[in-house]
Amino acid sequence: MTGIMQGVLVGIGYWMTGLPEPSFFGALTTVASLVPGVATVLVWLLIGVVRVLGGHSVAGLIELIYSVLLVVIAPYYVIHPKLVESWKVIVPLSCSLRSSAVYTSLWVGSLSRCR
User: Fold this and answer.
1) Mind listing the pLDDT tens digit for each residue in 27-80?
2) Residue 49 CA to chain centroid, in angstroms?
3) What is the largest distance, in Å, between two alpha-carbon atoms of the chain?
4) Model's pTM, two decimal places?
5) The pLDDT of residue 105 is above 90
6) How far apart are CA 49 and CA 64, in angstroms?
7) Which residues, at least 6 apart from 72, have a Cβ–Cβ distance to it below 8 Å?
8) How far is Cα 74 from Cα 5, in angstroms, rounded to an integer?
9) Domain residues of the chain, as ranges?
10) Where would a tag sit more exposed on the chain, N or C end, judged by fewer CB atoms within 10 A?
11) Local structure of 82: helix, strand or coil
């Protein structure tokens, strides 16, 4: 979920700074988010640095600042904690349902062996 948000946010940033094919690079960033750690950083950092070095200094710097603020800080320090907080209710429920299913299947299995 966080990776999809990062891809959408950075895609908007690519579009705002005039990068050609922002949806492609946003999707690339989303796929890169599957690699733990620094994967999304490598995509937008590379794009920002190439834009700065390619003569689009203002657009590259805006992309870098935007990406740090809205693609790194927002998902990890705002969105992700809210998702985890909402999962605190869901996870115990799913664990209790899963354990109930296991115990029920064991009980039914033991009954079938009694015959």
Assistant:
1) 888 888 888 777 788 888 888 899 999 998 899 899 889 888 887 777 767 766
2) 23
3) 81
4) 0.61
5) no
6) 8
7) 40, 41
8) 10
9) 2-86
10) C
11) helix
- The answer to whether 68 touches 40, Cβ cutoff 8 Å, is no
| Tokens coding 66 | 């935007």
Q: Which helix (H) or strand (E) holds 9?
A: helix 2-16
Assign 1 to helix, strand or coil.
coil
Is-contact 8 71, C-beta < 8 A?
Answer: no
Contacts of 83 by beta carbon, 8 Å cutoff, 6+ apart: 1, 2
Contact 70, 39 (CB under 8 A): no
For residue 59, give both structure tokens.
């657009």
